[in-house]
Design brief:
Blueprint lengths: L3 H7 L7 E4 L3 E4 H13 L3 H26 L3 E2 L10 E2 L2 H25 L6 H19 L4 H30 L7 H9 L6 H6 L12 H6 L4 H15 L1 H5 L13 H11 L2
Antiparallel strand pairs: 1-2, 3-4
Helix pairs in contact: 3-4, 4-5, 5-6
């Protein structure tokens, strides 16, 4: 069966940071994706679930039709051992892939929202189980119930293992994140470390930290209270007077007691 994570990685735009279009110039794909993610997160949850599924279903349909046209190989009914292979038309392949990827994306968003934003192996396995069930049902297996359950469990187990292996190898090969060191320290010192992901989505890295303003932080979806704390902290470093201002007032010098007495004593006793 198909591996959802591999399919998603193959069509991800993260591997294409910048493209050049004749007549238009260079396009920063990561920046466009960041703005799209910010827009998507601002939408109501039901719309996010529907739109994520619709978008992935369209991609899956296109991919399935292409695969069915290039290689219309026979495919056994999912969840049924020894079932004879049946040739699938491009339309059938497109339908299967559309359901598979659409249900997976919608389920991923729904489960993630229900779990307060947690995107881990359990979210991946839950979405894979539901997409496996849907794929089995739309494929027309002879025993729908058993085939759906076995396909769901198989999809969940395989994608769960793939997710864990991906994390293991990803951690070993990942490079240290040096673009947001100062931003992380700033937010942590103010007790706002949970908004680091917002800063990253808004591309507010260390080079821009002294340019942060109300509109930039608001676009990064940081609430009003934390915005005020961040801007107040930065204003202390933006104003030269606040840096040159002494920490404590200089005490007044009182010369009417010790100094004259000392001088008189020195004159009286040379």
């Amino acid at each position: 069966f198909y591996n959802i994570n591999i399919i998603k990685m193959s069509i991800s735009l993260n591997s294409i940071p910048v493209i050049t279009v004749p007549g238009i110039g260079r396009i920063d794909v990561k920046e466009i994706k960041s703005k799209y993610d910010a827009w998507f997160e601002a939408q109501p949850v039901p719309f996010q679930i529907f739109f994520a599924g619709f978008q992935s279903a369209a991609q899956g349909a296109a991919m399935g039709y292409f695969l069915g046209s290039v290689n219309p190989a026979g495919t056994s009914a999912p969840g049924v051992k020894g079932a004879p292979a049946k040739p699938l038309s491009p339309i059938a392949q497109a339908t299967n892939m559309a359901v598979l990827m659409g249900v997976n994306s919608s389920a991923s968003v729904a489960i993630k929202k229900a779990r307060n934003g947690k995107d881990d192996v359990y979210t991946s396995m839950g979405a894979s189980f539901l997409s496996g069930v849907a794929y089995s049902l739309v494929s027309g297996a002879p025993d729908p119930v058993n085939a759906a359950l076995s396909s769901g469990v198989g999809f969940a187990a395989f994608n769960g293992l793939f997710y864990q292996f991906g994390n293991m190898f990803g951690k070993g090969n990942s490079q240290p994140d040096t673009d947001y060191v100062k931003a992380k320290i700033l937010l942590s010192s103010l007790g706002l470390a949970k908004y680091v992901s917002n800063i990253k989505k808004g591309l507010l890295d260390d080079k821009t930290i002294m340019l942060w303003n109300e509109s930039a932080l608001k676009e990064a979806r940081i609430p009003a209270g934390p915005r005020l704390l961040i801007l107040h902290h930065l204003d202390q470093y933006r104003s030269p007077s606040s840096i040159l201002k002494p920490a404590l007032p200089v005490p007044m010098l009182h010369t009417s007691f010790a100094a004259p007495a000392t001088s008189q004593a020195l004159v009286a006793h040379p």
